[in-house]
Specification:
By secondary structure, this protein is mainly α. The protein has four helices and no strands. The termini are far apart.
Length: about 140
């Protein structure tokens, strides 16, 4: 048993907890319930920060000195974590694009209604302010 074995086991345990949280997020997003996401929980955020520090502190030489069974588990969990993280990121991007698209279309409809042709009246019509500033301060 090398000196790095407990560190690697801790890293595997943290990765498993993070994978569970990511899979719960994926399920919540697929149900349309983003408020049920677990990764916004401060405990999970703290866990991901600790995992990042622990993973950065693990070098290749330390991993190679670990027993082969432990190395295999670490490789498998790391691969599973990366795949789950990619799936989570893709789903978040889809949700964000859909919600931003809805906001953009609503803002364009409001702008269209404001700038539509108005009938003649006793007082001149005010020029409406553009609603483009509503859309994320013109970032989108």
């Amino acid at each position: 048993m090398s000196a790095e074995t407990p560190k690697i086991e801790r890293l595997i345990a943290m990765a498993e907890r993070l994978i569970e949280a990511l899979e719960a997020d994926i399920a919540a997003l697929e149900r349309g319930k983003p408020s049920e996401m677990r990764t916004i929980d401060p405990e999970i955020q703290k866990l991901s920060a600790v995992y990042g520090r622990e993973a950065a502190g693990l070098n290749a030489a330390a991993a190679k000195s670990a027993p082969s069974e432990l190395r295999t588990r670490l490789t498998a969990i790391t691969k599973r974590f990366a795949e789950t993280l990619k799936r989570h990121a893709r789903l978040l991007t889809r949700v964000r694009n859909a919600s931003e698209g809805m906001i953009r279309s609503i803002a364009e409809e409001v702008d269209r209604k404001r700038t539509s042709a108005r009938p003649y009246g006793r007082t001149p019509a005010q020029t409406p302010r553009p609603v483009s500033a509503i859309i994320y301060n013109n970032v989108v």
